[in-house]
Amino acid sequence: MEVDLFQRHPKNPLITARDIPYQVNTVFNAGVVDLGPEVLLLLRVESTSGRSHITLARSKDGVHDWQIDSQALMHPGDGHPYEEYGIEDCRVTAVEGMDGWLLAYTAYSPFGPAIGLAQTEDFLQIRRIGIAYPPNNKDAALFPRRFNGLYAMLHRPTASGGSIWIGYSPDLRFWGMSEVVLPARGGPWWDGSRVGAGLPPIETPEGWLVIYHGVKEMPGGPIYRVGAALLDLEQPHKLIAKTRRWVLSPQEPYERTGDVPNVIFPCGGFVRGGKLWMYYGAADSSICLATASISDLIDKIRHESD
Ligand code: BMA
Predict the structure, then answer these.
(1) What pLDDT shows up at residue 306?
(2) Which one of 2.20.25.90, 1.10.1060.10, 2.115.10.20, 3.90.480.10 gives the CATH number of domain 7-303?
(3) Residue 198 pLDDT more than 80?
(4) Is residue 251 helix, strand or coil?
(5) Ligand 1 proximity of 169 Cβ (cutoff 6 Å)
(6) pTM for this one?
């Protein structure tokens, strides 16, 4: 019997290190932009120095014939002091009333991982906005809407017991009004040790759909699986419900084996014809795709919540 709600694409893994047109260690955890006639991936590429940078990939159908740039879009050598150890796990959001896209990413500084924000109109020029949250913090994803004029962002301060928080900002520089949105469940649960936002939240009539990763620490190392939650549409710090069980877990050899085994780590996706296309990093070693119907996900959240 299937254990996962999501269905893997038969072409998985879509992109591996061999597809990158220059020497790298691995590729994983990509931000996603659906332009309609083209899908863009902001790949996290780990070079053979051990540090990560972001490189752009394009495909007409989001599955085949990826055109991958031969130069990084964002690189730790770009001269930003808080990115000296690398740029990781980019999530991309188009926010209403704004031109272009906002990028939220892990700015890996010598002082620890922080939340970096940047803006782009064309995915050619990237303008850094700055550090939104200092170390240690990861897994930031901006909402595509503003709330009473404020930007909103999910993020995961490490010292919070591994829980997802929300913060608001009038200008993307000053962040506050912090609240816990989704705590790690504790105990033996699949998302007991820590959680982090995956895709930027998706607006549905029933609430904000949040796809998140949950970690269970095992004697052999952590297992990263995927769950789903709904947040209140107007007050997004209010959790409506979350799945009791995961919706995608490492099963395939490319998810079980790699630089970090047993990892499914989604950072982006889009909705087409009622289906969520979710791109995820597998075992910190490749980019994969899985799909699920939005209504199945919402049903599962509603009926399996605790
Ligand atoms: C997390 C992040 C992810 C990574 C995962 C598994 O802390 O750093 O980028 O995929 O660990 O190694």
Answers:
(1) 58
(2) 2.115.10.20
(3) yes
(4) coil
(5) no
(6) 0.98
